[in-house]
């Protein structure tokens, strides 16, 4: 195989991995913002209350479930 072809393939793989990493970071940031705004109504103390913890957990779970559903729908459209 041509060395430039090998470098090109490695570069393409690296770029794809970086895009995936950026998407995950963006998703985590959005999830944090959405769930924080929804679940934390006052000034947080040193610990979350049980209702805040439950809300954050449920919010994150629903967000991830919806993200999976959306990805599957897009994959089915292709």
TrEMBL record:
Gene Ontology terms: biological process: protein transport
Endpoints of the signal sequence: none
Keyword check for Mitochondrion: yes
Main location: mitochondrion
Superkingdom of origin organism: Eukaryota
Coiled coil: none
Keyword flag Metal-binding: no
InterPro entries, alphabetized: Tim10-like, Tim10-like_dom_sf
Localization: Mitochondrion inner membrane
UniProt xrefs under SUPFAM superfamilies: Tim10-like
Record-annotated Tim10-like domain positions: 13-76
GO cellular-component term (any): mitochondrial inner membrane
Pfam families: zf-Tim10_DDP
Subunit structure: Heterohexamer.
Domain writeup: The twin CX3C motif contains 4 conserved Cys residues that form 2 disulfide bonds in the mitochondrial intermembrane space.
Protein family according to the UniProt entry: Belongs to the small Tim family.
Function per UniProt: Mitochondrial intermembrane chaperone that participates in the import and insertion of some multi-pass transmembrane proteins into the mitochondrial inner membrane. Also required for the transfer of beta-barrel precursors from the TOM complex to the sorting and assembly machinery (SAM complex) of the outer membrane. Acts as a chaperone-like protein that protects the hydrophobic precursors from aggregation and guide them through the mitochondrial intermembrane space.
Name of the protein: Mitochondrial import inner membrane translocase subunit
Record organism: Juglans regia
Lineage of the organism: Eukaryota, Viridiplantae, Streptophyta, Embryophyta, Tracheophyta
Annotated gene: LOC108998623
